[in-house]
Amino acid sequence: MARPLSTFRLATASLALIAPFWSAATAQTTRAVEQANDAFGVRVGIETIGLYSEGQVRGMSLQDAGNYRFGGAYYVRAANLVDPVLAGVTIRVGFNALDFDFPAPTGVVEYRPRSPLDWQGSSAELALREYNSPFVEGMTSIKLGAQAGLLVGAQASFFNSSAGNTNDSYRFGTVGEWRGERARLLAFGALNVFDLDGTYGNSVSGDVLPGKQKQPNRYVPKWGDHDGTDLNAGLIGSYEASDDLMLRGSAVYSRLDLDKADFALLSMDATGRGSATITSNPARDADAIALSAGASWRHTPGHRIFGEVRLRSSRNRFGQGVSVRVAEFDQDVGLPDTLQPVVPDGPRTRDTAQQVTAGVGYEANFGDLRLKGGVQRAFYERDFQRPGTAATSTEEEPWLYDLSAVAAFADRWTGFASITRGLEDTGVAPANAVNRDEVLPAIVAEQREVGLRWRPTDAVTVITSAFSIEKPAAVFDAAGRYGLSGDLRHRGVELSVAGRPVPELRIVAGAAVLDAERSGERVDLGLISKRVPGVSSYHGTVGATWTTGLDGLSLDANMVHWGARRARSTGNLETPPWTVLDVGGLYAFRIGDAAASLRLRVLNIFDSKQWVASRSELLDRVNRRGVRLSLTLRQQD
C-alpha cells in the first residue's frame, strides 16, 4: 500500500491539530522510568524499562499462558491493544503480583486503561521517530456531567524498521467511564488498521552465525504484504453492594483479521549468502471472548472471602499457504525478484478452545502477617480440524490453587512466599510431525517463590526473590512424534531497585540470573540440548532520569545487557552477549498558557549490531542506532 502522506504533508496536518492547543495547558510529561515502581517491566507508549516484557517473563511465554488483565479484568488477547486507550502496561511478578486474586505462574501483564475522569483536556503529539518515521497523535477527553467522561484518541504512524521494512498503521481508541457513589462502569473500544510490507525471520545455515546483515535492505519480496486489523472492545463494571461486599464483572472481546500474511524465512551462512523460502498465506482470523463475574466479602475486619467465575472462548481459522523457493541470494543485495504465487481460497482449518474456571479464596490479615489462598476448578476443551481430515480434541479438568504469605518481620523489611498452579495451552502437533494436527493436552504449570522487600528510605524500594517454574515440555521423540515428554524448569533469582536516592534523581535498576533447562528422553539421548534456546542465563537493566538545575530540563538514560543465548537445540552455537545504551532529554516549557514538551532520544547510541537468538530458534538483529524527536502539547480543563 502506498503511503498516503509525505513527511511534509503529515507535519502540516499535525500542526493543524496542534494549533488550537497553543493558548492554554498544564505541563504534564510521562516516561517509563517515572511510572515504574520496580524493575520488572513497564511500558508507556513506546518507551519501556525493566527486565521483562509483555511477551516473555522469566524466560516463559505469556502468550502461551494467557496471563493478561485489562483494568483488573480477565482478558484473553487475540489482537494487540493500541496506545490511545492505554495509560501504560505493567509486568506484575513477585511481591507486586500478590495483590491479584487467583494469580498465575510467571506473573501477570496488567494493561491499565486511560481514565477520562482523571484527566480532561486535549493533547497532540508530532514526532519523527527512528529511521525518519513520521508519527502524529491527537487525543481529547471531556466530562459528561459530574460522574461521566469520554476519551477519544487517534494515531497515524508511518514506521520504517531497522531493516528497512515499512509498517503503516492507523489506530483509534475510545474510553467511556461512569462513576457513581457505589458503582463504576468502564467501556472501551480500540482499532488498529495496519499494513506491513511482509515479515521475515533468519535461521542458521551451518555451524556458525551469519555474517553481518546489511541494514536497511529489503529481505521481503516486492509483492510481500502483511496487513489487517486488530479490534478490542469491552465492558468492565463494579458495584459496592455494602461497605463489606463488592461485586464485579467484565466482558472483553478481542479479534485479529489478517488479509495477507507473507513471510520470508532466510537461511544464511557466515559469508552472507544463503537461500530463502517465501510463504504467502491466505486470509486468516482469530478471536476470543473473555467473561468474568466475581465477588469479594469482608465478613470481619481483616478477613475476606472472594470468588470468581471465568469463561473464555477462542477461535482461530487459517488456510494453507503457498511457498516460493529462492535457491540463492546475497544478504548485501537483498531478495531477488520472484513471481507472486497464487494462493487458492479453499476451506480453512479451524482451531477452537473453550474454558470455564470457577474459584474461591480467602485472605486473612493478622497484624504484620497476611495469608491468602485460592482454589479453582478448570473445565477445558479444545478441538482442531483440518479440511478433509477427522477432528482431534482434548478435554482437561484440573484443580488449580495458589497460596501466599506476606510478613513484615522488621522495620522496613517484608518477606513473602508463594506457590501457584495455572493452566496453559500447548497447541497442536506441527505439520512436520508424525502425529500432525493432533491436539495436545493442556498442561499445568507450577511456580514456587520466596523473596524480600526492603525500603531503606521512604523513597527507595528493593525487592529480591528466588523462583522455580516447572511444567511439562512439548518435544519431538525419536520416532518423529510431537507430544509431551519430560519437563521444562526455569529457576532463577532477580533483584529490583527503584526510587529516588535524592530528589533530583530517579533510578530503576534490575538484574536476573536464570537457569532454563529441559529434561526427558530426547535430552538423555543427546538429541536436543538440556539448555533452552533463546534464553539468556543473565541480564540486567538500569534507567535513570535527572532533573537538572536548568528550569524545565531533565536528562535520562537507559541501558540493558543480555548474556549469550543458545541459537538452537542441536550443536553448541550461541549468539554473543550484547549491550544497548539509550540517552535522551526532555525540555518542558510554555507557549503562552500552553504546556509543551520537547523530547529527544538517541537509541542504541554505540550502534550495537549483534545477532540475537529467540526461543523459536530464529535469529534477529539488534535495532541499529536511531533518533526520536517529538513535540507534545497539552491542554487540561
Q: What would you note in describing this structure?
A:
The protein is mainly β. It has a single domain (about 5-635), classed as TonB-dependent receptor, beta-barrel domain (Maltoporin, Chain A, Beta Barrel). The chain is about 5% helix and about 60% strand. It has a 22-stranded antiparallel beta barrel. It has a 6-stranded mixed sheet with strand order 2-1-7-8-5-6. The protein is globular. The two termini are about 40 Å apart. Keywords: Cell outer membrane, Membrane, Signal, Transmembrane, Transmembrane beta strand, Transport. InterPro entries: Beta-barrel_TonB_sf, TonB-dep_rcpt-like.
Report the CATH C-level class.
Mainly Beta
Q: Report the mean per-residue pLDDT as an integer.
A: 89
Structural Rg: 25 Å
DSSP summary: helix tally: 4
Low-confidence stretches: 7-28
Classify the helix fraction into a percent range. under 10%
Tell me what the CATH architecture is: Beta Barrel
Biggest beta sheet attributes: 22 strands, antiparallel, barrel
The percentage of residues in β strands lies in: over 45%
Coarse morphology: globular
CATH topology annotation: Maltoporin, Chain A
Number of domains: 1
Q: Quick one: how many beta strands?
A: 39
Please state the structural category. mainly beta
Corresponding CATH superfamily: TonB-dependent receptor, beta-barrel domain
Distance between the first and last residues' Cα: 39 Å
Subcellular location: Cell outer membrane
Keywords: Cell outer membrane, Membrane, Signal, Transmembrane, Transmembrane beta strand, Transport
Signal peptide: 1-24
Membrane topology: Multi-pass membrane protein
